What we know:
alpha/beta; Spo0b-associated Gtp-binding Protein, Chain: A; Rossmann fold; 2 domains; 5-stranded mixed beta sheet; 7 helices; 14 strands; about 25% helix; binds guanosine-5'-triphosphate
Amino acid sequence: MFIDEAKVIMKSGAGGHGCVSFRREKFIPKGGPDGGNGGKGGDIVLLCDRNEGDLQAYRWQPHRSAKNGIPGMGRQCAGPDGADLILPVPPGTQVVDEISGRLVAELTEHGERVILLAGGKGGMGNMNFKSSVNQAPRRTTPGYPGESGNFRLVLKTIADIGLVGYPNAGKSTLTNLLTAARPKMAPYPFTTLHVNVGVIEYPAIHGRIFMADIPGLIEGAHENRGLGHQFLRHIERCALLVFIIDMAGSENRKPWDDHRILERELRLYSKILAGKPRVIVANKMDLPKAAENLKLFKSKVKDPVIPISCYTQDGLEDLKEKLWKAVKVSPVKAKKLVSKKPVAKKAKVKKAKAKILKPKTKKKVLKAKKKVSKKVSKKSKR
Ligand SMILES: Nc1nc2c(ncn2[C@@H]2O[C@H](COP(=O)(O)OP(=O)(O)OP(=O)(O)O)[C@@H](O)[C@H]2O)c(=O)[nH]1
Ligand SMILES: [Mg+2]
């Protein structure tokens, strides 16, 4: 089972207490204080590890705590520090505080380490408090308690390309053909139940692109129909979305309706996804109605379309090249959600100002003229 969300309760180690001890040795009377310091508590450390696939380990074992520091000892011996607890998480893991909902940490690169909860400091032994006026102190300080917290670990897969499409559109078939990943493919909807990330290799140019295959989307996914929106978070970080459309309409749906509904579902999920650059891939071009539908589709949808057939493997090389270009060479521009022209605004304001000013100034001039004519007429009467 693929688990991309887990609640965890974590606690770092407490510091060891300081020790009260006096040196007792033959022929050394009044040896003085020699109580050592307590050791530091262990930290809770998150380590980003690309060998981790999901967060399953945390679902089954949500309580994690680091070791406490050992108290100080006599003969000026400090207690050993508690061991840190190092927790490996897959790249793309976010840590959210359960209570405040704040994003606490995000691990994206292999080897990245984050100290989530720091261990408590160790206390001081009585050897630290000796002075000329207090040569036999019994004073120590206790170790500091460790930190604790309830967190939610959320995995958002990191890939360059995210495949979006209706169930049975051929997303997993394409992933199987282009990458070494082997997601299950079958002629029934919702074959894929979790995210599969594959790598498209470009040996000639020593390049690679990560592609994420997610479960199919259907109309009403925002109302939790089908597998809902829950897997869309895995393509939130992708540089490019690839819409796989069944151009043959083999399930008695129209390809342009599929496209419209997919766009709508992405819009309803988030603005980030709605604005992401995208490429449309017309699949199943080997089937009879596909060519006819493609013509109609192109007349209805303005975005560029790449026709392929996973069955005959036609167009796959072309698609691979175009994906490389779109992701690495000249990234496709993000969609504009709001098309407002700021220049037009300025012009409007100027016009409006002019409208307001003109009648006022005209009126003023007319009033002034009237006053002058009245004065002149009064003088002439006198
Ligand atoms: N004729 C034809 N069939 C195809 C083509 N591509 C995929 N299929 C078939 O379509 C069916 C569904 O393919 P999948 O790859 O499982 O579809 P999916 O989009 O991953 O589906 P979900 O995982 O359910 O979302 C399989 O039986 C494939 O053999 C194609 O180009 N031509
Ligand atoms: Mg699939």
